[in-house]
Design goal:
The protein is mainly alpha-helical and about 160 residues long. Helices cover about 75% and strands about 0% of the residues. The radius of gyration is 20 Å and the shape is elongated. The two termini are about 20 Å apart. Pfam families: DctQ (PF04290). It is found in: Cell inner membrane. GO terms for molecular function: transmembrane transporter activity. Belongs to the TRAP transporter small permease family.
């Protein structure tokens, strides 16, 4: 079980090592947009949308890694003061009854929109923008898959008893 969990962890870890560069690219592109607009009077909607695409990809595709390194939002009312056994039970219940069903519903309800977007190769958000909204919408099922895989990895570790104190 732990080998499988390690393999699932590796997917999000490798992806995160690429995605971290998106933040730097976003800052550089945004800096270029500001310089171009206010110093040279030049503007490009395509370049502006590239920041949006990078941000969306960074946020959606790094969510699994965020879950992996335990930096996600956690409602800490009972969890913080709970015993390790109670924490383990809360984690298992949260993954099985909240997280996995939520990403499954999100994937199910978003799929028709994603499929239709690919069918027509949906164009830009704005005139002169990036002609790939279908790629932007594809981030939704990718997000669902990556978070679900990470949730499964965490569940495998929890069921194997790893992390118990």
């Amino acid at each position: 079980m732990l080998k499988t969990a390690d393999m699932l962890d590796a997917i999000n870890r490798r992806l995160a090592s690429v995605l971290r560069w998106f933040a730097i690219f976003m800052v550089l592109i945004q800096f270029g947009i500001v310089i171009g607009r206010y110093v040279f009077g030049v503007n490009s909607i395509w370049v502006q949308e590239s920041v949006l695409y990078l941000h969306a990809a960074l946020f959606m595709l790094a969510a699994g890694y965020t879950l992996q390194v335990d930096k996600h939002v956690r409602v800490d009312i009972f969890y913080a003061k709970a015993s390790p056994t109670t924490r383990r039970r809360i984690d298992i219940a949260g993954h099985l009854f909240l997280l996995l069903p939520s990403v499954a519903v999100l994937a199910w309800w978003s799929w028709p929109s994603v499929r239709n977007s690919w069918k027509i190769l949906e164009g830009p958000i704005s005139v002169g923008g990036i002609e790939a909204v279908f790629l932007l919408k594809s981030l939704i099922p990718a997000f669902c898959a990556l978070v679900a895989l990470q949730s499964l990895a965490i569940l495998l570790r929890l069921f194997a008893g790893e992390g118990e104190e």
